[in-house]
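hey can u check if this looks right to u? its 212 residues, i copy pasted from the old doc so theres a chance i mangled smth
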Amino acid sequence: FVTHAGDGSGRLFVVEKPGLIHIVAGGQVVQPAFLDLTDRVGSSASEQGLLGLAFAPNYSETGYFWVNYTDLNGDTVVSRFHTPAETPNQAEPASEFVTLQVDQPAANHNGGMVLFGPDGYLWIGMGDGGGANDRFGNAQNPATLLGKMLRLDVTSNPDVPYTIPADNPWVEADWNGADVVDEAWALGLRNPWRFSFDRATGDLWIADGGQN
């Protein structure tokens, strides 16, 4: 994955599966790496690893950014990290503040994308838990975070992992009589690996890997 920090610096941040984030500035790779998480990222399977990176909308002021990775047990971790103002090309690996942890029953379908939407909230793509044919029945299970698009407020209170936006669609609604996890924006997804907001319309486009 490649993204920028929205800070006007022109730097590109390149995410590598084994757990490294590199900066490319002026066409050159900056050394050392911006962030090294190889001690806590598990990437032995093809859809595991360090999978996503999103900088806070006010990154220039806070130095906060979020990553999505599979840990050494193969489970999903979404965490916040901090970049000190005095070392803009070097984040602090020890600053990890876990936002969300989700058990993964199989090695594949880990989603991985994290993105701040035009609404200022953090959007997270969660796969159905892997296997094939949604063997664990998670995508349409309203009680699990797996197989969902999640929408979280991670910036209003930096002292807590997240809060639920009041206008998340399932906060006051149910699905076929069942309560849906409040974090969810959409359910029934297989592996929403990448997604983006249309800059002209604000529409959310999801690349959800199909069975065949």
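The chain has one helix and 16 strands.
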